[in-house]
Amino acid sequence: MKSKKYFLLIIGIVVLFQIITITTGLASGNEDQIFSLDEIVVIASKYSEIVLDSVASVEVITGEEIEGAQAKNLAEILSAISGLEINDYGDAGGIKSLSIRGSSAEQVLILLDGRPMNDPQTGQIDLGQIPANIIEKIEIYRGPASAVYGANALGGVINIITKKGEGESRGKIKTSIGTYQTQDYEITYQGSSKDLNYLIFGKYFTTEGSRENSQMNEVNLLGKMNLSLDQQTSMDLTLQYNSYQRGVPGSLTYLSPKAVQDDQNFNFNSSWQKKAEDKDIFVVVYNNYHKLTYNDPDEWEYTGASIHKTNRTGLSFNCTDYDFSLNRERSEGQYIFTWGVEVIMDHVDSNEIGEHEILNSAVFTQGVWQPKDFNDLKMTLGTRYDYNQIYGGQLNPRLGISYRIKDEINFHASIGRAYRAPTFDDLYWPSTSYISGNLDLVPETAWAYEAGLRYLNEEGDCRGEFSLFRKNVENLINWAARDDGIWIPTNIGSARVDGIEVILEKILGDHLKANLGYTYLNAVDLDTDDQLKPHHKYSFGFGYYDKTGDQQDEFCVQLEGYAVTKRPDDLPNYCLIDLNIGKELTLDKKDGQNVKLDFSVKNILNQEVEIVSGYPISRRTYTAAISFEF
Fold first, then answer.
1. 600-603, long-range: CB within 8 Å, 24+ apart, which pairs?
2. Are 545 and 507 spatial neighbours (Cβ–Cβ below 8 Å)?
3. What topology does CATH give the domain 2-629?
4. Exposure letters 73-107 (e unless 16+ CB within 10 A, then b)
5. pLDDT in tens, 572-602
6. For the chain, what are the domain ranges?
7. Entry pTM
8. Mean per-residue pLDDT, 94-100
9. pLDDT digits (tens, 9 = 90+) for 486-496
């Protein structure tokens, strides 16, 4: 019955979409165009290219879209995106990880300004720990990308570009209150001086949560500087600190009313880049430190708090030659050649799994060839070789083509190999009477195939994408109980993921924007024939944007949501819809000072939802915010 209700809801939204399209028409030739869909990305090939020419399924989320969604963190930004699934353990303090096209969270690589963020101990990252208001743009790569990014990119990649200071010095203060005694305070100060840009961000967040022992306190600090050395060369320096103190209520079946967790992160990132006319060079040096303290006095066989310290230090070098040729006459066409090296040292010091280190080094090359007599065709061949201190070498090739059928229509197809290495927890978790790590594990591997069409019209007000994909995974790592009752990770066998994605985005008239998305997944464990992921995800959104009054203050209303049906293990279907309203009020036009009022309602249908079984998310919540620029 619920499945029928959601189906009728989606049909109603599609009909409404068509009615609006017919009555308003496209905003062709509109000089005051609000949206630009012809975006530049670097995620697919590690050099700048427009989305329309990419050999993979990629998507860009702009800063304007992030601000309009009134999201608090990265998880809320990504929740309604086609092909993505947020594994939400409930409430603001519940861990939020990501699945792309049926992958596990450990198989998705998260990058922040080129720096891998996945915790080497667990392989995951809590998306709730990345504030929305530090993000300038997000690039999404759907599907395996180990040929470019190596381990942990078996499922896909999320590339986050943070904001940087610009213009005259100015600040912004934002305060919000919401349901469950939620309070959020943020301050941003940014600007530029000659060749130096700078940005400082601070955040304090607190909430009581909707369940017993689901409270959380968060402190997040970010400082970023960009120095232009000359017209072609610049350096970036970023320091980030965050602290999360939260209750861990446990599942509805196994409650933990006294469990608490304290996370502390300190991240350092420094980059140097040179953009010449025909060559780009990009170097990143980084260090991620994470300390996790978990304490549950009611835990079985309790011996004290668990303390885990992980440290990741890395160096990445990329070089792209846009005019590469072994033949000076270049009679065969145009070549773009990219190569790079990467070295990562992971270290863990834990009172449970001990002290361990793993070194991984890699080299990759990629060539893009555009034949002389076929300017609309691009062929990409790349490969990456990773050498892991424990598992030895992994070679991951990728072959892709991109063909402009017309100026506005592109066909792309690719085939590639990917892998994921076991984590510290997988290998070294100490043996007890109920759980143990496994030193005999081998890396997960996969071959992936994809083909699709992209459409982007000349006016930039209509975008569409259709994709077909398949992924065959071998040596899946799965934690499960053996016959003796001990939970242990093993390479259980293989899985296959088939799927279809459809995305449509339109600007309707001068002030309306609408989008629809659909993802079909058939993720099956080939050994047991079990369904691993939900079959259907429908996403939708409508936005109204206008400028009002003598000061042309911005006003926006957004309604967006998604529905998930045919979930595994007979879990109930659900539909989550959010409403966001924002209004600017200019105080001083000369100095550019204004106040912005925001109001949002999350889960307006008041759904009782367990995205992860046993961990209910919050029902309907309200948030009101006010921000002031100075």
1. 600/70, 602/576, 602/578, 603/576, 603/577, 603/578
2. no
3. Maltoporin; Chain A (2.40.170)
4. bbbbbbbbbbbbbbbbbbbbbbbbbbbbbbbbbbb
5. 999 999 999 999 988 766 666 789 999 999 9
6. 2-629
7. 0.91
8. 95
9. 999 999 889 99
